[in-house]
Amino acid sequence: MKTIVRAGLAAIPAAIVAFGLSAAANAQDASLVGKGTEWCNPVIGWGNVAARTGDGGYVIHQGSYPCPPAAAAPAPAAVAAVQSEYLVFFDWDKSNITPAADRVIGDAVSAILKNGGAKIHVVGHTDTSGSPAYNQKLSIRRADAVKKALIAKGIQAANITTEGKGESQLLVQTGPNVREPSNRRAQILPRLLNAPSS
């Protein structure tokens, strides 16, 4: 009890004073229990810091308790795998990037950059509405629009090639002059820079 009394009553929490001298004696007796363990609500000494015994243990009282273990750090998020193909779709007779297409391009760029970059080939396509000559030019414009979006999001221009296939490679087979949304598309075909050569 002498150790605690020397610290002064001002340094002893109200909880110990309420329990009387027997509680203070219990605190001194229990001080060794605090050694090697982090204790919450220990006796607070001068300078508003936890009181310590000569051997480094906490001075504890009836209201003290072992602190719960610190939460483990969350595992790092898994890096998204790069898909072999990303598809973006276009409105009829348009080559502008829609919000939905922009999200797909963003996902592709994010995965590619997190995996060390890639060479990317972009292939534009159309449906069968319009003439074959017109559709060939439209498919090239679509591929070029995707290339610009990839560059804007951080892909090096030198790593992107493009081509247009017009209406020659339909995703959904149709007759001539059919406005088929699934055929109005561009393929983003990445090949990782650090991928093993085959």
Automatic annotation (TrEMBL):
<dbReference type="Pfam" id="PF00691">
    <property type="entry name" value="OmpA"/>
</dbReference>
<keyword id="KW-0998">Cell outer membrane</keyword>
<dbReference type="InterPro" id="IPR050330">
    <property type="entry name" value="Bact_OuterMem_StrucFunc"/>
</dbReference>
<dbReference type="GO" id="GO:0009279">
    <property type="term" value="C:cell outer membrane"/>
</dbReference>
<dbReference type="InterPro" id="IPR036737">
    <property type="entry name" value="OmpA-like_sf"/>
</dbReference>
<dbReference type="InterPro" id="IPR006665">
    <property type="entry name" value="OmpA-like"/>
</dbReference>
<feature type="domain" description="OmpA-like">
    <location>
        <begin position="77"/>
        <end position="194"/>
    </location>
</feature>
<dbReference type="InterPro" id="IPR006664">
    <property type="entry name" value="OMP_bac"/>
</dbReference>
<feature type="signal peptide">
    <location>
        <begin position="1"/>
        <end position="27"/>
    </location>
</feature>
<keyword id="KW-0732">Signal</keyword>
<keyword id="KW-0472">Membrane</keyword>
<protein>
    <submittedName>
        <fullName>OmpA-OmpF porin, OOP family</fullName>
    </submittedName>
</protein>
